[in-house]
Amino acid sequence: MEEERKRIIVGISHDLRTPLTSLLGYIEALRCDKILTAEEKNKFLRIAADKGNALHERLQEFFELAKSEADDLHVELHRVNLTDIVQEALVGFYP
Question: Locate the Signal transduction histidine kinase dimerisation/phosphoacceptor domain: which residues (predicted)?
Fold first, then answer.
């Protein structure tokens, strides 16, 4: 069980770093690239906001995991469409 917990923490750590790194990259581009057009800046801001929201979601998931380990969470199971989840994940890599 402890080994599984460590594996989950490593996975969560990776899931947090990925959107954070992307978010910081877009912010750096906005801050330093003086030749970006207004349209490009708006596009980068939208992407940065999306990455920030993704980071927030991952942090919320981590918080829920911590609550579940403290037996402070009622788990409600429901079906998910894996095709939609995979498509969303793949689209996130393109920008």
Answer: 4-71
For 46-58, give the DSSP string: HHHHHHHHHHHHH
What is the pTM for the complete model shown? 0.61
Mean pLDDT, rounded, for 32-59: 91
Task: Return the domain boundaries, the chain.
Answer: 2-91
- The burial class, CB within 10 Å (0-12 / 13-18 / 19+), for 27 is middle
CATH architecture entry for 2-91: Orthogonal Bundle (1.10)
d(CA 67, CA 59): 12
Beta-carbon count within 10 A of 26 CB:
20
Residue 73 · residue 65 · CB < 8 Å: no
pLDDT of residue 45: 93
62 has a pLDDT exceeding 90 = no
Cβ-Cβ contacts under 8 Å for 44 (sequence gap 6 or more):
26, 29, 30, 36
